[in-house]
Amino acid sequence: MLIADNHKLNMKRVLLYLYLCLSICSLTSCRGCIKPKKTQCTECNGTGYVEQYCRKCTGKGKIECIYCNGTGKDKCSICFGEGTQKCLNCYGSKQTTCSMCFGSGKNSYGEECFQCDGSGYEKCFSCRGKGYNECSYCFGKGYTECHSCLGDGYETCDNCEGYGLISRECSNCGGDGWVND
Ligand SMILES: [Zn+2]
Ligand SMILES: [Zn+2]
Ligand SMILES: [Zn+2]
Ligand SMILES: [Zn+2]
Ligand SMILES: [Zn+2]
Ligand SMILES: [Zn+2]
């Protein structure tokens, strides 16, 4: 008896709900109550977002270093890429004043200086007569490791954080993951 009464009450509630729902739905464009069936979005497999290749790095996850154009190298700022520096002992002249005759070419007896054969000059000992020395900053290479990419030539793409893919909301389901059937 009591169960039957409860059942009747429940039926009333359901009918009332349906009535309300239908009257609201007829006023609005909502069709959710009449056609509540939804299917999983096939565009995103119900996840609500789709992944696409990062446009900035074309999916590679890294971009060429703008400082070294991908070479990983910085031109040496000391030797300007030459790898050599002018000898500071002879200032590039390859020779220095003779240490024996102090440039006179003669000894104290007025004879030809045997050290420089009377020229008054001797070969620069610092550069061994070359006039230049290896750049001490880049060790003669002419370049140093790129300060920005540390020699890699590329940097991690900041757009996708190196992932190569960008997630965006699925336009088919609006990020819901479900679409109305
Ligand atoms: Zn250098
Ligand atoms: Zn020198
Ligand atoms: Zn001399
Ligand atoms: Zn670089
Ligand atoms: Zn990227
Ligand atoms: Zn979707």
Summarize this entry quickly.
The protein is of the alpha+beta class.
Describe the structure.
Helices cover 14% and strands 22% of the residues. With 181 residues, the chain is of the alpha+beta class. Among the domains are: 36 residues; 73 residues, no CATH class. It is rod-shaped and about 140 Å long. The model has no long low-confidence stretch (mean pLDDT 86). The protein has a two-stranded antiparallel sheet. A two-stranded antiparallel sheet has the order 2-11. The structure holds zinc ion (6 copies). One zinc ion binds next to loops.
Comma- or semicolon-separated keywords:
single chain, 181 residues, alpha+beta, two-stranded antiparallel ribbon, 1 helix, rod-shaped, binds zinc ion
SSE arrangement:
Blueprint: H1 2-27, E1 38-40, E2 49-53, E3 62-64, E4 73-75, E5 84-86, E6 95-97, E7 121-123, E8 132-134, E9 143-145, E10 154-156, E11 165-169, E12 178-180
Antiparallel strand pairs: 1-12, 2-11, 3-10, 4-9, 5-8, 6-7
One zinc ion binds at residues 54, 56-57, 61, 157, 159-160, 164.
